[in-house]
Amino acid sequence: MQAFDSSSEQVARKIVVLGTGGTIAGLAAAAGDNLGYQAAQVGIAQLLQGVSSGSVDAIQTEQVAQIDSKDMDASVWRALAMRCAHWLADDSVQGIVITHGTDTLEETAYFLHATLAPAKPVVLTCAMRPANAAMPDGPQNLRDAMAVASTAGARGVLAVCAGVVHGAPDVRKVHAYRLDAFGSGDAGPIGYVEEGALRQVRDWPQAARACAPRQWPVTPEAWARVEIVTSHAGAGGALVQALVRDGVQGLVVAATGNGSVHHALEAALHQAQAAGVRVLRTSRCDQGRVMGAAAGALPHAGPLSPVKARIQLMLELMA
Ligand code: SIN
Questions:
Q1: What does the alpha-carbon distance between residue 269 and residue 240 come to, in Å, rounded to a whole number?
Q2: Ligand 1 lined by 23 (C-beta under 6 Å)
Q3: What is the pLDDT of residues 285-304, one digit of tens each?
Q4: CA–CA separation, 166 and 106 (whole Å)
Q5: Which of 56, 172, 212, 228 is deepest in the core (most CB within 10 A)?
Q6: What is the whole-number distance in angstroms between the Cα of residue 210 and the centre of ligand 1?
Q7: Which residues lie across from 158 on neighbouring strands?
Q8: 230 has catalytic annotation
Q9: What digits encode the pLDDT tens for the residues 141-188?
Q10: If we measure between CA atoms, which residue out of 168, 153, 37 comes closest to residue 98?
């Protein structure tokens, strides 16, 4: 087991901050309203005003998108991956920070992990309260993310929220309201940001097999179509049959427990597979992984959550 220096040294170089929207850039009509706000209203340059940059030499900002992350799609992922690839290749850049909505942060993080496998840090951060809340959490999260991005030796796609540093393969939104809204399941977090310094407790994310940037389609409709279906009490095959008729190329099933699927849904998935649709089983449980397989079982995605398995399958279908 590698030993980590709990007082990781920070280097003073350029940090690029890419804005994509989210609650961190949200505005509420009344400062005390942490629920009825509009996400993605404040520009990234304005968000950084008043956020102390610690030991960072220079900050460069870019507004890549301005959306509520529930509306995230492949065209924004493509634009974001291309801007990250551009800045990662610049020797003067120490790391990248991305401001993002919490709702699909884990999907964007996994997409960038799978496509860039960066040797520098790419740190996503977010907020659960809008920018003009009476007690906003965004400025502290942004400051913490910059501290991680400027830490010497930091690498990989990371997520920073409420002082906790997660790796892209493991991070999931686990709470709908709390400021500490993310978890890393069994793997646990990579570290913690304390008074502007990273205390690392495990290694950086393992670099994934990078598969970008290639000539991805510009419009989301032109990407491989992969849908998620859920196995539950009373599940049937009608949804799967309709999706196959509609030309779906891949199906991820959010299965019960260790990847078990209701027999009626399973029969439809086997028929879809026989018709040339790629099928992957995942678990709808928040923690753990799908292990082992009975003879003839549908293939499984191991530790990947349904939304991350969907991204993996999309990328494989387009490879
Ligand atoms: C979003 O995901 O863009 C809105 C919700 C949030 O950031 O917490």
A1: 7
A2: yes
A3: 999 999 988 888 999 999 99
A4: 10
A5: 56
A6: 27
A7: 123, 167
A8: no
A9: 999 999 999 999 999 999 999 999 999 999 999 999 999 999 999 999
A10: 168
pLDDT (tens digit per residue) in 11-63: 557 999 999 999 999 999 997 889 999 999 999 999 999 787 776 889 999 99
Locate the domains of the chain by residue range: 2-200, 224-318
Instruction: Give me the pLDDT at residue 3, please.
Output: 39
Q: Is 70 helix (H, G, I), strand (E, B) or coil?
A: helix
Quick check: CB of 249 below 6 Å from ligand 1?
no
Locus of tokens 């493991």 = 170
- Determine the straight-line distance between the first and last CA of the chain, rounded to whole angstroms: 35
The CB of 101 under 6 Å from ligand 1? The reply is: yes
Catalytic residue among 23, 99, 125, 151: 23
pLDDT reported for residue 7: 45
- Rounded to whole angstroms, how far apart are CA atoms 25 and 236? 41
Spell out the CATH class of 2-200. Answer: alpha beta
Is 2-200's fold the same as 224-318's? yes
CATH of the domain spanning 224-318, picked from 3.40.50.40, 3.40.50.1820, 1.20.1090.10, 3.10.50.40: 3.40.50.40
Q: What is the mean pLDDT of residues 129-140?
A: 96
* CA of 40, closest atom in ligand 1: 3
